[in-house]
Amino acid sequence: MTYAHITGWGKCIPPASISNDEISNIVDTNDEWITTRTGIKSRRVSHVSTAELATVAAKHALACAGVDAKDIDLVLLATCTPSTMVANTASLVQKNIGAVGAAAMDTNAACSGFLYALQAATAQIRAGMIKKAVVIAAERMTWYVNWERRDSAVLFGDGAGAVILEAADSAAGLLATKTGCDSEDRDILHIENFGSDLDKYAPIGPSNLLFEGREIFKRAVKGMSEACDDVLLQAQLKLDDIDVLVPHQANLRIIQAIQQRLKVTDDKVMVNIADYGNTSAATIAIALCEAVEQGLIKPHANIMSAAFGAGLTWAASYIKWGERVTPIAISDATLTPCDKTGLELVAAAVAACKDTR
Question: Is the full-model pTM beyond 0.90?
Answer without folding.
Answer: yes
